[in-house]
Structure prediction request, 483 residues.
Amino acid sequence: MQYISTRGGGEPLSFGETLIEGLARDGGLAVPAVMPQVGRATLDRWRALTYPQLATEVLSLFATDIPREDLARMTAAAYASFPSEVVPLRPIGDGLTLVGLSEGPTLAFKDIAMQFLGQVLEYALERTGSVLNVLGATSGDTGSAAEHALRGKDRISVFMLSPHGRMSAFQRAQMFSLDDANVHNIAIDGVFDDCQNLVKQLAGDLEFKRAQHLGAVNSINLARITAQVVYYFWAWLRATDAIGPTEVSFTVPSGNFGNILSGFYAKRMGLPVRRLVLATNENNVLDEFFRTGVYRPRTAAETHATSSPSMDISKASNLERFIFELVDRDAARVVTAWSELESQGHSDFSAEQPRFADEFGLVSGTSTHADRIETIRRVHAEAGEIIDPHTADGVKVAREHVEPGVPMLVLETAKPEKFADTIREALGVEPEYSPELRAMLDAPQHVTELPDDADALRAFIADASLGGGTVKTTPVGADRHES
Ligand SMILES: *Cc1c(COP(=O)(O)O)cnc(C)c1O
Prediction:
């Protein structure tokens, strides 16, 4: 399998070459040259597999440059610390079922892809004799998932910037309690945008970037997208074990369009999916796009800080991969649409909007703070389950799209323990912490405070990075916006 650019330029890449970043050389996003197809007989055969076995099957369709035994070893290692089903399903009534994607070390769905990425990055670096220094900015979830996936790896270091004093106590503890020598938490005296600008500045300094082997593992990362395809197959298999191979719908709490893109790929591979329901919070740039066909990214000033913070985005980094399929893989049209976006601030696909639902099954809805609180209460009262605010956005929007006879699977993107304040507001009590979580919250914290200054950051990285200037260079792409 080769990977081409959504903008039509550059040489095709192998899976291994897309591992860092996922950006093609012309600034477009890497996508599979052809979508692998999975027939009914194969789906039947996959029913008997464990989650890691299924992951090996699905990923071997994308990572054709990695021998199957190696993939099998990596998927087993990636999910060894998860419960045995890895992704458990729990019905909550009214035809809705939660798909438990948050059983990993940081209690959010990003662990599932990041744990595999950690394995496959280490494998690729070993084979090429290279090292990688991952540089990222986080407002919470992405950074902790990356650190927990990459901690203790020999050939990888992580430099994770976060805005000083602006993360929750839980988020801080999840990152700063790590004491691995290869994990560097850096609290910047500024806000999240300042952190992101520092990353952009250093990633734009090509000489420094090359000398320090800098790279990113952000949400446009293609290996993450393909690892997420697996759980759509898994959830379909488990939801239809008892009722036979019928269509199901999925609702996905969305921000950067990474998670739901994987569902879109699963459907294009032949998985019997009826609807892919995209749920947004008050930052509803994607709901607006799917309802009107007009994509209008927001400014930082127009982006609200909400009680489902991991969905607080101003633009959706992965949408270009959907647009590429929408225009029937005509890269020239993607380039035109994106230059319109640059010049006029929006891009208009309203003529194609009816196809979103009819051809691709994509529909959408918005959930607000009041909806989120009400939904957490209702699910608790009716099903005895405490759900997190992002999952609540999903459940709220899912209810608007339930159809008779079609199971509705709602992706649980985080656990409620991460968002105790909102749970307390909804239920009057806080979620209970396990002994492990309590120990994490009480553990000593490791963080370096730096001013909002690129030279100070450069000096810190040059001092602590792996292999500065001595080991073979790892190819890296340019940086992109990440929320
Ligand atoms: C990242 C995240 C999302 C949004 O996922 P995208 O892939 O960016 O659409 C939703 N919920 C939680 C809890 C997250 O961490």
Summary: Residues 49 and 55 are 9 Å apart (CA to CA). Residues 87-108+222-427 form a domain with the Rossmann fold fold (CATH 3.40.50.1100).
